[in-house]
Structures are given as structure tokens and as C-alpha cells.
Amino acid sequence: MFWKADADSPRVLVPPPIIFLTFFLAGWGIDWLTGWSLPLSQTLRFGGTAVLIGASGLILIAALWCFLRERVNPEPWKTTRAIIERGIYAYSRNPIYLGMALLYVGVAVLLASPGALILLPPVLLVIRIQVIAREERYLEGKFGDPYRAYQAKVRRWI
User: pLDDT tens digit string along 29-71?
Assistant: First the structure.
């Protein structure tokens, strides 16, 4: 860990944006080394990118707004004092990671990067195991039954 995590936190080892960026750059590097490129028209590349990045932006803004409104830290290495169940969190327990995944796909489509798209399932698996699992254990330990009730009624992704 290259920063100081609060003792009362999920103690996520690497910030999720760094995880997504690392996998994306590895995929783009594969494209560069192999000469791979997705055969997409400019219309599909730019239109698809606009939709994906636009959706990502809306999801991320909605999620961050919930954190601001509730005065809760979004960083998974800081203490959490409440379960956010309103707004976009009434539909997804992890909208920030969903937004990051859509952004990842949008940029991969823009750059016509098959390598980045191939690495999407592994990056989501790493996020699930190294980030979400830690957060869920932490929240269940800290909030107990109220968090388990939230888990029962709201899906992890969508």
C-alpha cells in the first residue's frame, strides 16, 4: 500500500482506478505489440464511446453525489460511518465500479483496443476479489444485520 489506510477501513491495497488503468494499459500494450485493432467504423467508435462514457459519467456523478450528500468518504481505505442506500445505491451496491467499467469499455472502443476488452473480465475479477470482497467484509463486520439486509435487496452490480 502506498498510502496510509485508516485502521477502521476495508484496507483496500490499491486504488480501484489504478487497477483499471493498469489492466487497460496492459491491453493497449498487447495491441501495440501485436498490431491488433478492432475493425470498427468511425461512427460506431465515436457513437459507442459517447454512449458508454456518457453513461459512465452520469453513474459516477450520481454515486459521488450520494457520498457528498451523506458526508461519507468514497475512498475504500478510509473509515465509513454509514451505509448509503439512497439514490443510485438503491439500485447497485457498487455504482462507482460499474461506472469505471463502462469508462474502461468506452475508451477501449474509442481506441479500437481488443487487448483492453480481452482484459475486462480479469480486471473485474480483481476488483471483485481485491476490492469489493474487502469492502463487503468490512461493512458486514461494522454494520451487521442492516448491511446484510441491504445486500439482500440490492444487487452488487446492476
Answer: 999 999 999 999 999 999 999 999 999 999 999 999 999 999 9
Is 12 in contact with 135 (CB distance < 8 Å)? Answer: yes
Query: Could you tell me if residue 12 is inside a domain?
Result: no
Q: What range does the domain containing 96 cover?
A: 51-153
d(CA 77, CA 119): 25
Mark 13-28 as b/e (b = at least 16 C-beta within 10 Å): ebbbeebbeebbeebb
Provide the whole-model pTM: 0.92
pLDDT at residue 85 greater than cutoff 80:
yes
**What is the DSSP-derived secondary structure letter of residue 140?**
H
Q: Please check whether residue 139 is in contact with residue 89, taking contact to mean a CB–CB distance below 8 angstroms.
A: no
54-to-48, 95, 102 alpha-carbon distances in Å: 10, 14, 9
Confidence band (pLDDT; 50, 70, 90) for 76? confident
Residue 31 lies in a domain: no
Contact (Cβ atoms closer than 8 angstroms) between residue 71 and residue 96: no
